[in-house]
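Re-run with default settings, no changes from the original entry. Doing this only to confirm the output is reproducible before filing.
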Amino acid sequence: MNVLSIAHAGMVSAANRLENSASQTLAAFTPNGSDKDLIEGTVGQIQAKHEFAASVRVAKVADEMMGQLLDMKA
């Protein structure tokens, strides 16, 4: 499997998690919302941020490795 496709899948997963947690956070401010919704939504957003950053690092390292391989081949 291609490393960049794995990194891309991680970024998509993080974006989906962010969207879900943002909806959960928003639900906390509705009349039926609770502190639990706010906490879970906030934690989900923080997790999504770290998941996205990790996926970006994977893509960056893969790019750097490919550049080094091409430099060695040239």
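The mean pLDDT is 93. Helices lie at 3-27, 35-73.
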